[in-house]
Amino acid sequence: MLDLSQLAGFALIALGMVLTPGPNMMYLVSRSICQGRRAGLQSLAGVALAFVLYVLAAAAGLSALLFAVPYAYDALRFAGAAYLLYLAWQALKPGARSPFQLQALPADSPRKLFLMGFMTNLLNPKTAMLYLSLLPQFIDPSRGSVLGQALVLGAVQIAISVTVNTMVASAAGSIASVLSRRPRWITVQRWLMGSVLTGLAARLALDARR
């Protein structure tokens, strides 16, 4: 099965991606600020369910693809690197938006909060790219079941995403208040995330499967 270095490398990428502003984080932060922490966490439950569905679908599909197509790994590796560079540009480009810049949202019922969180993540292209182009880089068929490895990696990603987003949703109001008084920190956050993602993209592009 997977060794610790593979898990650590994947965990670092998963952490970098969850900290990068995207539809999930922007929705959860705005929901938490507008309607309270409980609403943010109810929305996060829907986000987590979408992650589970993606993991199951990707694990089954990758198991077949990596064995059927000889060059599938390299194609997915470069696609993953390109997508990380795209995310880095989204963080660094002039006028990029911080997730802590509030979007006004109306109050919704718990059921709608869950469904909105689910749909926000289900239709999030970053989630699809994570599983379809980055997951295969950390799967080695010589180490056993591809399906099992994919499920383990998916579980690691979900654990990281849920943990980070729980902390973000819980502290969203305080963080937004601090950043509104210190706008320079928004720029620092963007450049930090952009630099991390650029480094991860280079690692993926140059680190061929051993």
Task: Describe what you observe in this structure.
The chain has 210 residues and is mainly alpha-helical. It has one domain. Helices cover 78% and strands 0% of the residues. The chain contains eight helices and no strands. Helix 2 runs antiparallel to helix 3. The radius of gyration is 17 Å and the shape is globular. It starts with a helix and ends with a helix. The model has no long low-confidence stretch (mean pLDDT 75).
How would you summarize the topology of this molecule?
Layout: H1 4-18, H2 23-35, H3 37-68, H4 72-92, H5 110-122, H6 125-134, H7 146-181, H8 184-206
Helix pairs in contact: 1-7, 2-3, 2-7, 3-5, 3-6, 3-7, 4-6, 4-8
Compact description:
The chain is 78% helix and 0% strand.
Structural class determined from secondary elements: mainly alpha
Gross morphology is globular
Count of spatially separate domains: 1
Mean pLDDT: 75
Poorly predicted runs: none
State the order of secondary-structure elements, H for helix, E for strand.
HHHHHHHH
The number of E-state strands comes to: 0
The radius of gyration over CA amounts to: 17 Å
Q: Number of helical runs?
A: 8
Largest sheet: none
Helix content: over 70%
